[in-house]
Amino acid sequence: MCRLAILALFSVAMVSVYGQDTPPPFLRNATPDQLKSFQQMIQSNGHLTETAMGAKIQEWVDQQGGKVAADWKDFQEFIKGQQGKSEAAHQTAISSFSPEAKKADAELTAISNDASLSIKAKGDKIQAYLTTLPANVKAELEKAQGQ
């Protein structure tokens, strides 16, 4: 499974912990028990690498079958389609960054691409790095994210 999908799912699960109950699109037809099971599985496995989490999610989806599996397949196709657009937008944003923001972006990308880190460790490392950035660099990165 692609990294973007795993990070998106983990983000959705983490947001839901803090009170928002928006399930990922592939769970729109899931039962309440399936939603709860998925959320518990994601929340209890942040210690896994993206590859291991991808396998765990695929195993869970395979066990669910039916509409969940069909919607999962559609979701994966959607994410794959978005990756090219996302990378093109990222490259466009980088081209207008200040040298400091380019350096920060490279550091954040390196953290994101580190396959040895668990999903939680990546999130923690990214958050820690962001706190070290000067306000103007952080604002520049955030502005680019919002576009």
Could you explain how this protein is built, in words?
Residues 34-138 form the SXP/RAL-2 family protein Ani s 5-like cation-binding domain. Keywords: Signal. It comes from Caenorhabditis elegans. With 147 residues, this protein is an all-alpha fold. The protein folds into two domains: 1-82, no CATH class; 96-147. The protein is built from seven helices and no strands. The protein has helices at 3-17, 32-43, 50-64, 66-95, 99-113, 119-132, 135-146. Helix 5 packs across helix 7 (135-146). The two termini are 26 Å apart. Residues 1-5 and 10-20 have low confidence and may be disordered.
Percent range of helical residues: over 70%
Per DSSP E runs of 2 or more residues, the count of β-strands stands at 0
Rg for CA atoms: 17 Å
Query: What structural class should be given to the helix and strand makeup?
Result: mainly alpha
Highlighted features:
disordered N terminus; 77% helix; mainly alpha; 147 residues; 0% strand; 7 helices
Write the layout of secondary structure elements.
Layout: H1 3-17, H2 32-43, H3 50-64, H4 66-95, H5 99-113, H6 119-132, H7 135-146
Helix pairs in contact: 2-3, 5-7
Produce a short descriptive summary.
With 147 residues, this protein is mainly alpha-helical. It has 7 helices and no strands.
